[in-house]
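Worked example

This section walks through a single chain of length 272. The input is the sequence exactly as stored; nothing has been trimmed or padded.
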Amino acid sequence: MDAPNDTLARIAAALERLAPPPPPAADPLAHPAYLWDGTVLKAARAFDPLPIALLSGMEAQKASFVANLQRLAGGIAAQDVLLWGARGTGKSALVKSAVGAVQADGAALALVEVVTPRLETLPALFAAIADAARAFAIFLDDLGFEHPGEARALRSLLQGGAEARPANARLVVTSNRRHLMPRDLAEQASAINPRDSVDDSLALADRFGLSLGFHVVDQDAYLAIVAGYCATHDLPFDPTDAVGWATRRGSRSGRIAWQYVTDLAGRHGRAL
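Given that input, the structure is written out below as C-alpha cells.
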C-alpha cells in the first residue's frame, strides 16, 4: 500500500497537469509590445506595424497622437487617448504605427494590448509595470460596454479611483462610438431621470484628454491610400480596378484599400 505522502504527491501532480501554472511574466523592459490576458504580461510574438507614412488621410490625427506618445515616453505630462469613428478608418493601425514610429526614434515606450474583456484585471497590469523604467501605451481596441457599470469601472481607473493607472502608463482606446455609450440603451430609457443616466455614460468619454475622430473617406482619399500602398510595394495602380473592388465590398476605407492591395499582390504572385 502506498504511503499517504506518495498518494498526495500523485494527486498534486495530476492537478497540475489538468491546470498548469501560468507561464512566467515577460520582462517589461525587454520587448516592444505585449499582450495582457488578465493574469500575466506576455511578449507579443511579432510586432511589425505599418510605417506611419503609409497611413494617409489622417495627418492631423497622426501628429497629435505621435506628439502625445512622445511626451509619455519622455516622462512628461501626457493624455489618455480616445480614437473614435467609422470602422476600417485606421484607428487601430495608427496606434501600432505611431508606437513603432516613436520606438524607432529611440524612445523607451512599449505597447500593451489588453486582450481580455475583464477590465477589473487592469490594476494587476498597472502593478506589473508601475516600477518599470519605460513608458507604456495600454491599448484597448474596439471598446464597447454592455452595461453602464462597466463604463464606471474604467472611469475610476482613468481618474479619481483608488487604483488609477501609474504615471508611466496611459490608456489608448479605440471605439466606433464617440461617447462610448453602452450598446443597450434600455437602462437609460427606463431610468427615473434619463438625462442623468446619459450624463453618467458621457462622463467616461470626458475622461480622455485627447479625443481623435476618424471619418469615412471619399473616393479620392480611398484611391490615394491605394496608390500609396501600390507605390510602396511596387504594384500597378489601376484606379478603375480599385474602385470596382470597393464598390463590390460596399465600402471605402483604409481597411478596404489594404484588402484590395493584398488581393492585387496575390494576383501578381507577390508577397507583402
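What to look for: Residues 11 and 17 are 10 Å apart (CA to CA).
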